[in-house]
Amino acid sequence: MTTSPNFTPKLRSSYFYLWMIGIFVFSLAIRFWGLERFNTFVFDEIYYAKFANNYLTKTPFFNAHPPLSQYLIAIGIAIGEKLPFGSGVVNDLTGSVLKSCSYRWLNALTGSFVPLVVAGLAWQLTQRSRFAILAGVLSALDGLFLVESRYALNNIYLVLFGLLGQVCFLIAARQLNNSELNNNKFWKTSLTHRSRSWLWMILSGFFLGCSASIKWNGLWFLITIVGIYILAWAFRWFDPISKDNESNDAPTLPRQITNIPAIPIILGIAIVPALTYYVLWIPHIAQNPDLQFWILQQKIYLYHKGSSVIGNVHPYCSTWQTWLTMLVPVAYFYKLGINPTEPIALNAPNTPLLPGASIYAVHAMGNPFLWWMSTVAIVAVGITLLFRFWNGLLGRGFRDSFVLGTMMISYGANLIPWMGISRCAFIYHYMGSSVFATLALAWWGDRALSQENPPLTRVVWIAIGLCVVGFIFWMPVFLGLPLDETGYRLRMWFPSWIEGASALKRK
Question: What does each C-alpha distance from 141 to 171, 340, 441 come to in angstroms?
Fold first, then answer.
């Protein structure tokens, strides 16, 4: 595979690290801002915050998901109760009197790292600083990841661990980037490169196991790794340009991936994930000895096949087609109140929407402009791959389409399994796929900026500007800031965006 000469610029490393620090500080600030605003449960905190506290109080319980996210929230509670912030806002909804911040702060901290991990994934795929920076910036402007990071929920952990597994896999391959690979023999590389490659593969397997230990659909990140590995071999076998570069001192990424031997591959995608998943159940089983490991797995399976999650049991249940256009967001919180400066009181009732009253709403929705452009971008990636595949069949090589193929496999592996389900699903189940749609948008932006074409450059900056404007405009429904009725309805562009809020209001 070759890269066009005008598609290779890199920023100086100091600029790159400054960008990463800026992205992290912004992500951290926006996630911790007003974290105690709602002194009550928001959406599924009613389960996960309670379950986490059950571990601390040694209370037996059954959970329909694996236990890792509740362990992490429990650790957050144990540490958060000793932290010097949020002490004035407490409740006993978990069964213990706790600061609302204590079961949220670790999620906020964890979510702040997601844009950096997305940037790291972009870097490992292409070694291009601008692509990584664009990916990090766009990820930091996503509303759904922001909302999921600010409450004691589990989806942010699932995606973060899955992405870390993918990054570690690519780093493991990058360790084999030296001239000793010319003979395609792993054992001729230096001991340092071999040991590092093994270590990163083991770490990859650990994070993949952690992702599955949040929810079972975390396994789809493991399927992504398998798909990328198969794609790399396909390039080695069928791409004549890749074969021409077999003797280069700087091997292509597909070549590096396929030079990882079978043993670390098996460790990374099978043994370590399975062992991690099993070991992480041990503390739960020790506290709940009536149900052993395999019985628990059966109960979880039967629960998700049962009537309680089948069909449209919520007004904001949605199908995968609606996720692409963000047609049905989830209303996590909706309350009416008079005072816009104080936290919403515990179990505060909805008051009449009098003149001057405020609406407090939190919607699990993406940044609409970012979301819609990302959908167009990933569709464009699919179409481009079809054309490049046809060129490859004609013997013209597949050019630099391995990165696009990786994005498409990653996107599809996290989306396709949801296409045939009958249970109630929500837009947050699209989070794993949406990362790669955002990566696709960043890739097209990087490519356009590389052309030194003023009209294309203007289009890219307009797109980024729209994402910034959209983030600011919809920030009140990401953060639950007080709005009057006009301001709230101004942000609810479609009737389906307010159905969930209407249902919460009726409660």
Answer: 26, 25, 13
Pair type for strands 90-91 and 98-99: antiparallel
450 CB-side CA count, 13 A: 20
**Residues counted in the chain:** 507
- The single-letter code of the amino acid at 367 is N
3-state SS, residue 3: coil
C-alpha–C-alpha distance, residues 67 and 52, integer Å: 9
DSSP state of 472: H
Percentage helix, strand, coil for the chain under 3-state DSSP, each rounded to 5: 65, 5, 30
Parse the chain into domains and list their residue ranges.
Answer: 154-305
> In a 10 Å sphere around its CB, with 0-12 CB exposed, 13-18 middle and 19+ buried, how is residue 322 labelled?
middle
Q: How many Å apart are CA 366 and CA 229, to the nearest integer? A: 31
What pLDDT is recorded for position 350?
Answer: 53
Q: Copy the structure tokens of residue 215.
A: 């929810």
pLDDT in tens, 313-348: 667 788 899 999 999 999 999 888 766 555 565 555
Rg (CA), the chain: 24
Exposure on the CB side of residue 6, measured as CA atoms within 13 A: 7
Contact 363, 478 (CB under 8 A): yes
CB 168 within 8 Å of CB 126: no
Crossing angle of helices 105-112 and 68-80, in 10° steps, is 110
pLDDT in tens, 29-40: 999 999 988 888
**Other C-beta atoms within 10 Å of 428: how many?**
27
User: What CA–CA distance (Å, rounded) separates 268 from 205?
Assistant: 4
Contact criterion met (CB below 8 Å) for 272 and 199: no
